[in-house]
Design goal:
The chain is of the alpha/beta class. Helix content is 41%, strand content 17%.
Length: 227
């Protein structure tokens, strides 16, 4: 019996350091995981940079850091009323302004995603949405908004002069403004990357603590001059 107890004691002494080493390893992994998570959250709260090719930059009259023009345009829901200023619909924290035209797949995807991606998660956090239908008949603007589930305001840029103050071509376009009406991010198309960066930008601008809002670059970084 004594020999058995001695063997058990020796086995315990051999096994205990192994469990201790294993426990320390798990603890280290947990610390590393927490650090990586914190870094990921910090990255997510930053407004992504805007990269433009030289060709695309030539199509943009306004860039990051510029003040968005206070366009006066009629509302598709009440076209006989006086034109509405985009600034009058500005959100406290951010405003997403969408220019669209036609029935392309990008336009369809954009209008369809606005409710779930922007209005529902960010509407109560001081974010507003304004869609601008460029050279689009009022009936078509109302039809497409309803068909694709977009329920926010739609302004009508009948002759395209409103959009011409912002850019020369490439629709749809998405601009995100901060609470002061300054452009902090935009894209000249709508894609999965656009969708992801819209969410990232709005998450940053609608942060509960204003001190958490990231500084924005005044000008977009230039990409190589190739498409």
């Amino acid at each position: 019996m004594g020999r058995q107890n001695m063997k058990d004691s020796q086995a315990t002494q051999r096994v205990a350091p192994r469990f201790l080493a294993l426990w320390i390893s798990f603890l280290a992994i947990g610390v590393m995981a927490s650090s990586l998570l914190a870094q990921t959250e910090e990255k997510q709260v930053r407004v992504p940079e805007v990269f433009l090719s030289s060709q695309h930059q030539k199509l943009c009259h306004l860039l990051v850091g510029d003040t968005f023009p206070d366009l006066l345009l009629p509302d598709a829901q009440s076209p006989t009323d006086p034109p509405q200023a985009v600034g009058a619909r500005q959100g406290e924290r951010a405003t997403l302004v969408v220019f669209w035209s036609g029935e392309g797949y990008m336009t369809k995807a954009l209008l369809r995603d606005l409710a779930a991606d922007v209005i529902e998660p960010f509407g109560k956090r001081g974010v507003a949405v304004v869609a601008v239908a460029v050279k689009t008949p009022i009936g078509k603007a109302q039809e497409w908004s309803a068909k694709l589930g977009y329920v926010g305001p739609t302004l009508l840029d009948h002759d395209g002069k409103g959009f011409a103050q912002v850019a020369s071509s490439r629709l749809p376009r998405v601009y995100i403004l901060d609470g002061e009406g300054t452009i902090v991010w935009f894209d000249v198309e709508y894609s999965l990357a656009t969708r992801r960066e819209i969410h990232q930008t709005l998450h940053a601008l609608s942060a509960k603590d204003p001190a958490d809002k990231p500084k924005r670059a005044k000008k977009p970084a230039k990409a190589p001059a190739s498409e």
